[in-house]
Amino acid sequence: MYRLALKFPPNHLHRHHLFILLLFLLISARFTATSSATTTDYRRFKEAPQFYNAPTCPSIDINGTTEMCSPQAVHVAMTLDAAYLRGSMAAIFSILQHSSCPQNIIFYFVASSTADHHHLRHTISRSFPFLKFQIYPYDSSAVSGLISTSIRSALDCPLNYARNYLANLIPQCVRRVVYLDSDLVLVDDIAKLAATPLGNNSVLAAPEYCNANFTSYFTPTFWSNPTLSLAFADRKACYFNTGVMVMDLQRWREGDYTKKIVEWMELQKRIRIYELGSLPPFLLVFAGKIAPVDHRWNQHGLGGDNYRGLCRDLHPGPVSLLHWSGKGKPWVRLDANRPCPLDALWAPYDLLQTPFALES
Question: What is the pLDDT of residue 320?
Answer without folding.
Answer: 98
